[in-house]
Amino acid sequence: MKDVNKAINKLSTEGKALYLAQDQGLEHGPDKLTGESLNPEHVFNIAEKGEIDAFICHKGLAEKYADSYKVDLILKVNGKTLLGPSDDPYSPITCSIKNAVELNAKAIGFTNFPGSKYQSKIFEDFRKVQEEAHDYGLPVTSWMYPRGESIKSDLDRDILAYSARIGLELGADMLKMKYNGKPEDMKYQIKCGGRAKMLMAGGPVASSSKEFLKQVEEVNNAGAFGFAIGRNIWLHEDPLAMTKAIRDVQLKGKDIYSALKRLEK
Hints:
The chain has a single domain (4-264), classed as Alpha-Beta Barrel (TIM Barrel). It is built from twelve helices and eight strands. The chain has helices at residues 4-10, 24-28, 40-49, 59-65, 97-102, 119-135, 157-170, 183-192, 209-222, 231-234, 239-250, 256-264; strands at residues 17-21, 54-57, 73-76, 105-112, 140-144, 174-177, 197-201, 226-229.
């Protein structure tokens, strides 16, 4: 296995990562891509001009747009839609690792659903993806999203911590996970994830820039490696200013009120 840690270091700035994500078109439908965000070129442009370490997308966007922009890719290799059954989720493989390498991906993204009735199949898919990706020296980021009849809340401290541990033991290099709004719970979540690096999932649009930057500050202070954010950047009225504000908090240690001044301008 090649050294994936060197690859992860190249996808970060001063040991911290900020990734822009747009896999929501497949996962949630185009009605979530309002305004200019419906145009992939608009979002690729944010990734290129913003203070972003990598752009997360499915292979179709990579094939049709990536060559026109200077941005490192994290290629998502499985996915599902809202058009299928509404029971326990399963995300089928949508792209081979060989194809991802040909598309010049710098890392791989994969969604795990701990607790789903399809967990065994998901784990087997992940095993194949993780082992082949590591053969090419590509890190694997696992979306650790607990789902299923037995999961009463996907924001429960112990469920999140257990999911982080599952990701570590399955071999994920980075864990993209929800933040439940409690810094001490995030610290425990990170501890359970061990040497797998924690990324906060950006989630739905926050009620305000201040609220979102507060989450960024708390998760950063808890010791997370970084953030994988979609809607809270590309749906913002000034996406590039938002990326700079996030970096102010993440890298420069500024408080959220200082960071908000970028957005006031």
